[in-house]
Amino acid sequence: MDSGTHLVIGFGLAGLAYIDPVVAADPTVSTAVLIGTVVGSQAPDADTLLRLKSNAAYIKNHRGLSHSLPALALWTIFITLVTSLAFRGLPIWHVAMWVFIAVAFHVFTDLFNTYGTQAYRPFSEKWVHWNIIHIFDPVIFLSHIVAIFIWCVHLAKPAAIFPILYAGIAVYYIWRSWYHYYLESRLYQQDPHYQPGDRYYLIPTFHLHVWQIVKRKADGRFALGGYKNKQITWVDEASCASHPAVEASKQHKDIAAFLYFTSFACAEFRQHDWGYEVRWADVRYRHRRQYPFVAVLLMDHDMKPLDSYVGWLSDSRLEKKLRVNT
Length: 326
Hints:
This protein is an alpha+beta fold and about 325 residues long. It contains 12 helices and 8 strands. The strands form 2 sheets. Strands 1-2-3-4 form a 4-stranded antiparallel β-sheet. A 4-stranded antiparallel β-sheet has the order 5-6-7-8. β5 and β6 form a beta hairpin. It is globular. The mean pLDDT is about 95.
């Protein structure tokens, strides 16, 4: 989820904590839990600081180790210990429980997005992305805002508000998961261009009933489209280039980081007077007829790197980023 949604969830879990009699009975404990759940709901995204090192490091590692199974325990222990130093005499296990719930809920919600996480580490480095909930879901965000407002103006007690909220959120997640499976499993029946070997991936958008579609064909090509009003509309097709320069680009650290993150990368090859340009794009992120999530490598005729870029960009901004005028 986006940072704003994680933030309101942190406050929401602090409200839910009032179902714990130990938290509800002591304002100091409830304050400590509030700080713990808000910090815990943000902590796994601390790896955003990797941007200071490089975009490649950020893309390769964001939602990696920081969202892993060991990290759930480490974040919980660290936040609980810091909180206990600030508030003496806390019921440590109650605070730790609510901090853990906040950290775990952060990782859990990220699994439902397209970006995904490496939540199975250390057992697997596979990126897990269920493609069910958009990174910003208006239902989840606005429902939390309403519940927090009701709490702040004392229209109801938090022990009454937030169990209802999270029961509703649970139902919403179950419904979205079922709906996604129902639609995705039937796409091949609605696609007049279906051929054996085609695989379909339904990608959520901001609009609850509008989806993007990525179709991976048996020959390695991708078809991109949308699903709306029970109809498929195909809008583009990506054919992945084959050239020695494309293979050579895979050895560059920026390209390797990009390919480590995504299995939906498709390469475009261009030849120039000064050498070669290889542009890898993640086809899941099509926006306004472009694929803005890219990794680009410029090489001379001997396939030695000249410059590179990895991250989110438009074509015009990319030309300004790279030293060679493409």
